[in-house]
Amino acid sequence: MQLPPKVTERAFARLAEIGAGDQGQALRVAVEGGGCSGFQYDIKLDAPEDEDLVLEGQGQKVVVDQVSLQFLENAVIDFSDELIGARFVIENPNVASSCGCGTSFAM
After folding, report:
1. How far apart are CA 25 and CA 10, in angstroms?
2. Are strands 60-64 and 26-33 parallel, antiparallel or unpaired?
3. pLDDT tops 70 at residue 102
4. 48: enclosing H helix or E strand
5. Taking 80 as the threshold, does the pLDDT of residue 37 lie above it?
6. What is the pTM of this model?
7. Which domains does the chain have, with CATH numbers?
8. How far apart are alpha carbons 34 and 40 in whole angstroms?
9. pLDDT band at 39 (very low <50, low <70, confident <90, very high)
10. Hey, how many other C-beta atoms are within 10 angstroms of the C-beta on 74?
């Protein structure tokens, strides 16, 4: 049984700040082939699809498609607001290695 990713309160709060749910949008977290290390994250606002896993909090939604779900087992979706910039980040225990860009990884 796969454990779905978790979404932090900080990530849901950021989605609420930008009004994603008010516009019928969810944060889509997908894993695609490519990038420096073999896989890369694609994180964007998108409309939920019927087949998506939907994670809800604070009136907001984060969605993951069925193919990406296997790569995000037990991962944490967070929001980081640092000097170098504010962005959604994935803490993924399944990743064997990653590269400096922060969006590409290998399993």
Report:
1. 17
2. parallel
3. no
4. none
5. no
6. 0.88
7. 6-106 (2.60.300.12)
8. 6
9. confident
10. 13
What are the residue ranges of helices labelled H in the chain? 9-17, 66-69
7-33 per-position pLDDT tens digit: 999 999 999 999 999 999 999 999 998
Burial of 42 (0-12, 13-18, 19+ CB in 10 A): middle
Average pLDDT over residues 74-95: 91
Amino acid at 50: D
Q: Which tens digits make up the pLDDT trace of 40-73?
A: 899 999 999 999 999 999 999 999 999 999 999 9
C-beta separation of 24 from 14 below 8 A: no
Element (H, E) at 64: strand 60-64
Structure tokens at 31: 């894993």
Paired residues of 87 in beta bridges:
80
DSSP assigned state of 52 = S
